[in-house]
């Protein structure tokens, strides 16, 4: 059964019914014991009373008149209250029935000479108490049918169970109602959620929620908040990306219009050169936007692929060679103090390295060197990319990793995303990006990676 | 007409400088707020083209400083942020026009001409004086109905004079209208252009005011 309500109702009705049955059984047993005790006391009392009546000669016995035979035993009356239930026999010690009460059977009730005993006469079980009167030479036996006793106990139990058959359905109904009422906050919440629009991420009201539901509501509200924040980030990113794409597009269109409008060959050539550069830059911007989006959503290609840091650096440097050659910039890779052993996630570290190297090459003057140093320092591996470019001003330094921020000494192909990508990637890998100016000139970006 | 262009994107700045130059404007290009402030305090411009997102601040700051100094130079905001709220904010901050990127170069030039014209209080785009008609939009001119051939510089000198026909314009003001920062100004360049104009329009069309500059001769003189 998969419904809490159904389960609760079944459990509640089941246990209530069981408790009721156990109570009935308990009462049955204890009533039986009590009834036995009380009726036994009555038997004793009745036997003693008959005995004392005999002693006082208030009951006349057959044998007092002569040897009259068993069948002629006089029948006496034991009084109204006992008439139906109790039977009394008086036997002489030598085995003659000398008297009996009106409802008593003719056959001897018991073979016991004294005290309590049970006997079956004509299919009926009797409980009998026997008193011996040696002075009169008789035994007084008082008995009652156990059938009567059972009926008494049965009546008590019936009195208990009969109302239960009426009360139980009422009880079940009340249980059903209260369970429904108790679970109302849950169904209310489900109703609110299912009628909601996909964009409606308002928190659910948590005031007045029962303690059992409140954690679920709080968890849901937390989820709503996170989803909302993620969507807000995405919206901002999209809006920002659109703005940033509009500027190079405006540049391309303007240059194209100049090329079309101008009759001057030099002006046209310059405009076309600008267009070529602008297309490269816009293509790079598009690639970086994809890199950043894939890092932020965490679904880059081949996520599990890992490789050695030295291999990753080798690949990134090789990729950068054509750009460096075009700008007459040399890239040198240098291991300080041996080869560090570190496996890195390719989809994170490769874009970081590529952007750092690209930045360094783009900001280098003609004929300069870009140095990539790898250095293990205790629990971290440091990968630094140094250039001999103009560096940045101190006020720009903290803003460098902001998306789309471009400093004063910006390169013609920069998008303002490279360092943001590097930082996001390295932070996701558990590391850190450090940026600094070099003295006397240049800039250094360092990836600090945990081993 | 001399205008200041503030734009941090190199390719676009180059495009604006060359493109607006082709449309007859003299362009001073800058790419930061700081340079824009410096240029505006040193030079009088007929109009300013201003980007909003600059590396060292917002173009709105430049605009506020300009208006705070009671400078009424027409300002056209040129930006990628062209949603309605952005446009409203820009115009309310004192801008005279708002153009979103990407834009059409010819439209931008036309809007700039309109801004300058309105700033000078003239109702029409065409300039007329004693039978000479200048059309700054088409960069064409005529004299008593006949087409008049003028170089770019000659056209600029004549336009500057015809924009304020009764006023005397100093030689420095003419030089500023003709040459941007990046251009070399020869010491007698203005005299040469005026000489050529006189030979095309008659010696008495432009008068020399000794020690002051030049002005147009009055109607019927």
From TrEMBL, chain A:
Keywords: ATP-binding, Kinase, Membrane, Nucleotide-binding, Phosphoprotein, Transferase, Transmembrane, Transmembrane helix, Two-component regulatory system. It comes from the Bacteria. Residues 180-232 form the HAMP domain. It is a multi-pass membrane protein. PROSITE patterns: HAMP, HIS_KIN. GO terms for molecular function: ATP binding; phosphorelay sensor kinase activity. The chain crosses the membrane at residues 7-29. One of its GO terms (cellular component) is plasma membrane. It is an enzyme of class 2 (transferase). Pfam families: 2CSK_N (PF08521), HATPase_c (PF02518), HisKA (PF00512). It catalyses: ATP + protein L-histidine = ADP + protein N-phospho-L-histidine. InterPro entries: 2CSK_N, HAMP_dom, HATPase_C_sf, HATPase_dom, His_kinase_dom, HisK_dim/P_dom, HisK_dim/P_sf, Sig_transdc_His_kin-like_C. It is found in: Membrane. Residues 240-451 form the Histidine kinase domain. Its EC number is 2.7.13.3. This is histidine kinase.
From TrEMBL, chain B:
It is found in: Cytoplasm. One of its GO terms (biological process) is regulation of DNA-templated transcription. The lineage of its organism: Bacteria, Pseudomonadati, Pseudomonadota, Alphaproteobacteria, Hyphomicrobiales. The modification 4-aspartylphosphate is found at residue 51. This is Two-component system response regulator QseB. Residues 2-116 form the Response regulatory domain. SMART domains: REC (SM00448), Trans_reg_C (SM00862). Keywords: Cytoplasm, DNA-binding, Phosphoprotein, Transcription, Transcription regulation, Two-component regulatory system. Residues 124-218 bind DNA. Residues 124-218 form the OmpR/PhoB-type domain. Pfam families: Response_reg, Trans_reg_C.
């Amino acid at each position: 059964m998969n419904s809490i309500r159904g389960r609760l109702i079944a459990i509640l009705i089941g246990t209530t019914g069981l408790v009721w049955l156990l109570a009935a059984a308990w009462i049955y047993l204890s009533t039986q014991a009590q009834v036995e005790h009380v009726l036994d006391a009555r038997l004793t009392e009745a036997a003693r009373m008959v005995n004392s009546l005999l002693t006082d000669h208030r009951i006349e016995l057959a044998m007092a008149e002569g040897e009259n035979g068993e069948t002629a035993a006089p029948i006496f009356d034991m009084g109204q209250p006992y008439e139906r239930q109790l039977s009394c026999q008086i036997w002489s010690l030598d085995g003659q029935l000398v008297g009996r009460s009106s409802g008593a059977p003719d056959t001897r009730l018991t073979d016991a000479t004294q005290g309590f005993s049970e006997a079956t006469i004509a299919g009926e079980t009797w409980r009998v108490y026997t008193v011996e009167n040696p002075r009169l030479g008789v035994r007084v036996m008082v008995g009652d049918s156990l059938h009567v006793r059972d009926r008494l106990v049965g009546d008590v139990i019936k009195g208990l169970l009969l109302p239960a058959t009426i009360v139980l359905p009422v009880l079940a109904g009340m249980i059903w109602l209260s369970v429904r009422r108790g679970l109302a906050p849950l169904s209310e919440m489900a109703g609110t959620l299912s009628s909601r629009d996909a964009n409606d991420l308002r928190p659910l009201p948590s005031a007045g929620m029962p303690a059992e539901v409140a954690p679920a509501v709080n968890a849901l509200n937390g989820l709503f908040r996170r989803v909302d924040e993620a969507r807000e980030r995405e919206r901002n990113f999209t809006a920002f990306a659109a703005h940033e794409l509009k500027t190079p597009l405006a540049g391309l269109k303007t240059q194209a219009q100049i090329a079309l409008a101008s009759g001057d060959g030099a002006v046209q050539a310059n405009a076309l050169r600008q267009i070529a550069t602008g297309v490269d830059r816009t293509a790079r911007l598009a690639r970086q936007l994809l890199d950043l989006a894939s890092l932020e959503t965490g679904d880059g290609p081949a996520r599990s692929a890992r490789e050695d840091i030295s291999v990753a650096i080798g690949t990134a440097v090789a990729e950068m060679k054509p750009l460096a050659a075009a700008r007459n910039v040399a890239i040198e890779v240098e291991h300080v103090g041996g080869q560090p052993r570190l496996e890195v996630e390719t989809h994170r570290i490769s874009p970081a390295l590529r952007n750092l190297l690209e930045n360094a090459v783009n900001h280098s003057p003609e004929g300069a060197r870009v140095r990539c140093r790898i250095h293990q320092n205790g629990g971290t591996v440091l990968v630094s990319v140094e250039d001999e470019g103009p560096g940045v001003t101190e006020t720009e330094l903290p803003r460098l990793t902001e998306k789309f921020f471009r400093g004063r000494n910006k390169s013609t192909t920069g998008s303002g995303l490279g360092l943001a990508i590097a930082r996001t990637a390295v932070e996701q890998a558990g590391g850190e990006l450090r940026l600094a100016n070099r003295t006397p000139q240049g800039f250094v970006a360092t990836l600090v990676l945990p081993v | 007409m001399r205008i200041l262009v503030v734009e941090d994107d190199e390719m676009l700045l180059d495009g604006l400088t060359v493109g607006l130059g082709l449309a007859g404007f003299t362009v001073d290009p800058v790419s930061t707020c700081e340079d824009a402030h410096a240029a505006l305090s040193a030079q009088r411009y007929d109009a300013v083209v201003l980007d909003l997102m600059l590396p060292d601040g917002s173009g709105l700051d430049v605009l506020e400083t300009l208006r705070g100094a009671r400078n009424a130079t027409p300002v056209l905001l040129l930006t990628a942020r062209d949603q309605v709220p952005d446009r409203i904010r820009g115009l309310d901050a004192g801008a005279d026009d708002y153009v979103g990127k990407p834009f059409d170069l010819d439209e931008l030039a036309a809007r700039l001409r309109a801004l300058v014209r309105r700033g000078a209080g003239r109702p029409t785009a065409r300039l007329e004086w004693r039978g000479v008609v200048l059309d700054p939009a088409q960069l064409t001119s005529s004299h008593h109905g006949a087409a008049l051939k003028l170089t770019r510089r000659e056209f600029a000198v004549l336009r500057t004079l015809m924009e304020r026909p009764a006023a005397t314009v100093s030689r420095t003001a003419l030089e500023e209208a003709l040459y941007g920062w990046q251009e070399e100004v020869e010491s007698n360049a203005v005299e040469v252009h005026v000489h050529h104009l006189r030979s095309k329009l008659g010696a008495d069309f432009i008068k020399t005011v000794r020690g002051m500059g030049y002005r147009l001769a009055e109607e019927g003189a």
